Amino acid sequence: MRSNTAERWIQDRVDRYGPVSKLSLLGTPTVLVTGPAANKFVFFSSALAMRQPLSVRRILGERNLLELGGADHKRIRGALAEFLKPDMLRLYVGKIDGEVRRHIDERWEGRSTVTVMPLMKRLTFDIITSLLFGLERGPVRDALAGDFERVIEGVWSVPVDLPFTAFRRSLRASAKARRLLVEITRETKAKLERGEATRSSNLIACLLSLADDRGVPLLSEEEIVDSSIVALIGGHDTSSILMAFMIRHLASDAQTLAGMVQGKYQTHQIKKHHYFKQKLFSALSMLISLRGAEHDEVAKGKGDGEALLTWEDLGKMKFTWRVAQETLRVVPPVFDNFRTAIQDVEFGGYTIPKGWQVFWTAGVTHMDAAIFPEPHKFDPSRFENNQSSSAPPCSFVAFGGGPRICVGMEFARIETLVTMHHLLRRFRWRLCCKEDTFARDPMPTPLHGLPIEIEHRTYY
């Protein structure tokens, strides 16, 4: 993972043993399954249960969505889906837009270089804490951001609770964050009772408002806190990685860039890169005519540019979302996952014994030339009909699939489109590092956090 050769290791194993093979991982007998049929088996089989490492259970809570199954999983997932459904999310587009504008004004504007990865992580954190918890900008949100960083550091660590270990730091930070979320939950409950908040105010208000036919709350306080932490982690890492790798790719893909925005550039910054700019301008000039620049078209409809983006505006950014999907295909944020066989189960002509791990990975289907021709070529047109028409089901699995498909998929789409709209309309950038590499630990991270040189964009 850290040397970024995991895909090659998996593919070599598939070439040698086929799409089903056994091995030992972390001291546990394991079956590696690959291909669309294997993905479908993992996502839909009732004989397989989620299996999270002990560190995840200790830090995120025993009632977290990743750990639960059966009726409890369905109940809590349904509660989260109630807040994250499109009808609810369309109410928050303007609020997300405001967070993105403030972030860019404070952390991008007036600078000649920025480091993208930590900026995207802070942006997604601010968006999520605002919408999910109702936390406004200030010292409380800043303190939670520090705690959250320490939580993330230990989620996938060796669960040894000793001083000075990442696991101990993460446990302490998790306990502190949970105390804050309990306080927020109780304050929100009081506001709902006084009529000072509504079901649509934020995620916690929505979860507190859900009840059965007898008026009994669907979720306990512990389940609300655990669900909030999982939502924070799930929405923070994956979206920030997606946007960082989109920025990374667009730095060197003029053709894709031209489908998003047109424009001239200011010359008071990065003058030493005159040759680079000449080449880029030339490529853009030739390619702009190939497809309309959708973000410029959206901006034209906003008048003076001060009006916030709307749900309808996002519906016009179809090409940008195809670019995002292709980015996820090439660099899926989640490389693999595990299930546990809760009974003997058949797959591919083999019996997987009860208690064995089932190891699943996205890269095998994403980079299969029989499914996605020329898989190493970046081609957003693969997703012109939401997914390549020639690809079998369960081939593109960046968001998982089945009953556990990412519940925040639509939320990720909104914050990605809003963020890319403002970055593309205001800046152009160039990679600082000649070596354009990344490693996984366990999520993909660009070299040095992806430092870039930026210049402000002017318009025709």
UniProtKB/TrEMBL annotation:
One of its GO terms (biological process) is sterol metabolic process. This is Uncharacterized protein. InterPro entries: Cyt_P450, Cyt_P450_B, Cyt_P450_CS, Cyt_P450_sf. Keywords: Heme, Iron, Metal-binding, Monooxygenase, Oxidoreductase. Belongs to the cytochrome P450 family. The keyword Oxidoreductase applies. Gene3D superfamilies: Cytochrome P450 (1.10.630.10). One of its GO terms (molecular function) is iron ion binding. The gene is gb21003. It comes from the Eukaryota.
